[in-house]
Amino acid sequence: MRQCPRGSIARRRCRLPHTRVRPSTNSRRNQPTPFTRAQFEQARGEVLRGGRWANAALTVHRHDGALWVVKDFRPRAFALRNSVGRFLVRREAHALRKLAGLAGVVQNAFRLDAHALAYRFVPGVTLNQADLGARAPEFFAALERLLQQVHAVSGIVHLDVRNARNVLVSERGEPILLDFQSHLSTRWLPARARRWAERFDLSGVYKHWARRSPETLGEARARLLAEMNRWRRLWVLRGYLGVRRSQPRRAP
Question: Which uninterrupted H or E stretch holds 125?
Fold first, then answer.
């Protein structure tokens, strides 16, 4: 048996090698991913969206019979992909881990590497391309419930539901939330600020609802939408990085 010298400090230093617990090798970073960067680039899947200079490229990748969406900042400039790209990939992966298992949010998300995020492909069309017809009130009521679940389960707000490309209409007609890059954690916000952020989030649903089926929106939702629209006039960073792109005129 090893003899330790007298004195509290000396005895603690002597015992440290015998009591230190080594970290587990099964950490999240060491877990194998479903596929690697090399496999992804070799497959050359279908590009859904090339992305602008500060946006990720979206690609559908097939691996072992399953379809994945890969959100990749690697095609962007070196400085951007190693600053904004790394930050947004890490940020969105963290949000999707908190929402894992919640129906209505993309599943099995993982970081392919520092520049890319992947998640299971969900067949459907984005809201800006969907023709909901008579199903609009039912769809938006489901989207409202989904967003309320996101708030309650994860303690985060999406903040970009107003962008119709961030809402998917699945083949079964169900809402799927996409793109949590802009999310905000409400865990540490005062109760009043948290409620305001959640109401602002819901106003994104009501914006689309008012456009597709205004007669079914209801007075309470319409009042909330009008209130949040007044707040949005004070927001100076509307549009892409604060720059509102002008819409080209269509020929008559």
Answer: strand 124-126
Asked if residue 169 lies in contact with residue 188, where contact means CB atoms within 8 angstroms, the answer is no
Query: How confident is the model over 209-238, as pLDDT tens digits?
Result: 999 999 999 999 999 999 999 887 765 445
Encoding tokens for residue 15?
A: 């015992």
Residue 71 structure tokens: 């959100």
Side chain identity at residue 37, one-letter code: R
Domains, the chain, ordered by start: 33-120 (3.30.200.20), 124-232 (1.10.510.10)
CA–CA distance from 167 to each of 10, 24, 219 (Å)?
A: 62, 38, 24
Write down the pTM of the prediction.
Answer: 0.80
Q: How far apart are CA 192 and CA 81, in angstroms?
A: 36
End-to-end CA distance of the chain: 93
